[in-house]
Amino acid sequence: MNTxxxxxxxxxxxxxxxxxxxxxxxxxxxxxxxxxAFAQDAxxxxxxxxxxxxxxQARRQNETLQEVPVxxxxxxxxxxxxxxxxxxxxxxxxxPTLNVQSGGSGSGGQISLRGxxxxxxxxxxxSAVAFEYDGVVVSTMRMVxxxxxxxxxxxxxxxxxxxxxxxxxxxxxxxxxxxxxxxTWEVGMRANYEFEEKGYLLSGYISGPVTDxxxxxxAAQFNDIDEFQLLQENTPAVNQKRGLTDFIGRLxxxxxxxxxFRANFKLQYTKNENDGAIGTAEINCGANGVADSISLLxxxxxxxxxxxxxxxxxxxxxTDAAGPLSGPVPGNSPANGRNGVPFGETEIWFGRLQFDxxxxxxxxxxxxxxxxNMDAIDYDPYSxxxxxxxxxxxxxPGGAGSSDPINQLEQxxxxxxxxxxxxxxxxxxxxxFYEDRTFIFDTSQQxxxxxxxxxxxxxGFTYDWDKxxxxxxxxxxxxxxxxxxxxxxxxxxGGIRWTDEQKVQxxxxxxxxxxxxxxxxxxxxxxxxxxNFADDNFSPEVTLRYQATDDINxxxxxxxxxxxxxxxxxxxxxxxxxxxxxxxxxSSLIFKSEEAEGGEVGFKSQWADRTFTLNATAFYYxxxxxxxxxxxxxxIQFITSNAGELTTKGVDIESRWITPVDGLSFSxxxxxxxxxYTDTFLQPGGAGGAIxxxxxxxxxxxxWAGNIAADWSIPLNDSLELFLSGNAAYNDGYITDEATLxxxxxxxxxxxxxxxxxxxxxxxxxxxxxxxxxxDEIFTITSGGRPFxxxxxxxxxxxxNRGRQVFxxxxxxx
Length: 814
Hints:
This protein is mainly beta. The protein is built from 6 helices and 49 strands.
């Protein structure tokens, strides 16, 4: 038995473990799955040989992966670099039932796990899969969209995680932890070129000790992609290929002035620029196979769609705005002067300060302070089609439905935790969390597109209106947990978190096109006054773990989750907002809190001298008032609602085999998932009225998903090593929307990745050829109705993945 395993099993935690017990108070759970995890420490086995042990902090204390009674997956920094994973969305082939979408004009991204997620459109939603960035739960998915680099580990925790991770973790946690300063000076650089999208990436870092007590790490990355999207032939757009650039810079300081105190500070700046927010969106022409026209002004204006109805050629019809609609935007929007050409800009400042103080030999206090400031704007026509005939068979831009959403966020959070490190059978942890958040969503929109008649005769603006939603959120929670060793093999743990969340939103419409003023619209200068929402919740959790042998652990857990409701920020002055303004009752804009309850049982085992690992978990959870948002193509209105009940159940299996062949290992993972709406869930849009989705399978919930991977390090001599690896991931398909009983179903598909590298065994230098999605498999992540459909039209929008990527890379460190 290795020494760490003996310490954890006996409860005799060392001083180092005591200092680390709450070091991750708001850090990600440092968890790992045998198939992909590389967060391993070397320990001495009983026979004196070196043994690799995966250390995790799923319960905020150091435990080995095989002992922690939590279903978790981790991807280490080595794996991320080997496969050139530079976007969170690229992780899906390594985590079955994980679905990540980057893009969208609202929240900027979506994460779903085991068939449960949240909208990528509305920034009013917190994600059901909490995104934790360097210990801080981030309320905007644009951190997902921004990309990442210099990552130490990505962790995915499945199922509700409210006790240790707090608000908005009803479906799980996706946690990203960046690298910290090294104990000796180290410089690393990496450069690669991607052949399919014509992109290059440059990154580097310098890390080491400034003094005996202060370490520093400075890292930066620049990524430029020239052909992120190629447009369909004859698309009337200035940019016939859409590109993007990302810059990320990060400073990390680690200060250890005394044995009893440690502080860690991170400051990051992210700048993203792109040629439009829509992303990889294709149009499916529906059952009739016809590109439906863009129908405006009550059908008085019919604009030819222009797209070719081919959905798998990675050629997108993303037109610029029509001339009559591309005029000035109300206010000081950056969209002014761009003549209807799509663009996107995001700037994010992120800071985190964590300190750990040993109050005594048995008590540790941890503080984690997080700050986030985001300023984002994007502009695109959301008709997803349209052109006007030009001279000599050319096409002129015909895009309608443009908007310039400005998303501004200021977030402050503070967490304090006190944990014990007693030598006896009992230990505890208590803490408090506070968050203050202000989110401003300011957008000019063309929903009616009245300027096809004429610009506003008073202002000259070509937009229907300008509106601003300002939402202020305060969240406070207290939590406590305990661990009791009932015997030397049986452990009982659990706790409870109380959360109180209050939100206040105001809605202002400073401008309304003169031709629209009158019945059916709010008046220009409209101000709603405060719209209030408040809710509180108790989220308990309890787990029983039995260590049958040194290599077999069995556990059973009961868990609950909570995600606060709020006020929808998608209300339009011509629809839901105008109706609320007339009555003075804004309750129709409020959506309920989401709650989860259920449990899981599982085992973790190792066999054949720990060369073979087999872990499995069976789970059952019920999600009440699941928060969803769908687009109604008839009213051109996003509809926010709560699904009455979603029940998910299934099994996750993971395994790894370290073969007798030196350097060769295999891993495999398999998930079975049954996710179904099990109570009334009414969605508007049916010919006979609302449609009840009760009994229908949940969206983005494949019944079967899994992957199998092989890694082989082949020493050629003392200074040269060849590395071969491959990963094959399978998904048997899923429903992509939750609007009707016959939403689009993504068929089953396979993804294949591979890597061939040669370099120094210690990583001093390496040359690599890496392929992602080698067969260029294109699949749909989400779907929704296409705006401005004519009567009988059935076209819909399919948001797809990126295609094949092939990288040539060189890296070195010294």
